[in-house]
Automatic annotation (TrEMBL):
Keywords: Disulfide bond, Glycoprotein, Repeat, Signal. Transmembrane segments: none annotated. InterPro entries: CUB_dom, Sperma_CUB_dom_sf. Residues 12-120 form the CUB domain. The keyword Ion transport does not apply. PROSITE patterns: CUB. This is CUB domain-containing protein. Pfam families: CUB. SMART domains: CUB.
Length: 132
């Protein structure tokens, strides 16, 4: 039984290849669970810009976001780490893979996060300028 509880919940992991979508924490808008280690990956075509807008954010606060936190990872590097109640700023990043990781500890939960993303082709914009 203990092993089952510690296993990452499958609903909190996923790979998203649609050009636009909404990602949210497990159970949102109800409170998320303790002991989460979630990975939501947006996979876009090459030469893309991934645009992210946070709609809601309520994650246990810590001075260094050491308890619960959301990380935006670009090519396995941490781009940003967020916790607390302030809605993070919009992001526009040139990349074809962006990971939203959501980690929680063993106590205190919040309603979590919800964000929407869109994938824009950087290449298309360049081609458009060339034909002018
Ligand atoms: Ca917590």
């Amino acid at each position: 039984m203990i092993l089952f509880i510690l296993c990452p919940r499958s609903e909190c992991n996923g790979v998203f290849t649609a050009k636009a979508g909404t990602l949210q924490s497990l159970n949102y808008p109800a409170r998320y669970d303790n002991n989460l280690d979630c990975s939501l990956i947006i996979k876009a075509p090459k030469d893309s810009i991934i645009h992210i807008i946070f709609d809601a954010f309520d994650v246990e606060f810590g001075q260094d976001c050491e308890y619960d936190y959301l990380m935006v990872n670009i090519e396995r590097n941490v781009h940003a780490r967020h916790c607390g109640n302030a809605i993070p700023e919009d992001l526009s990043i040139s990349t074809d893979i962006l990971e939203i990781a959501f980690i929680t500890d063993m106590t205190e939960v919040g309603s979590g996060f919800r964000l929407s993303y869109t994938v824009i082709s950087a290449k298309g914009q360049g081609e458009c300028r060339c034909t002018l």
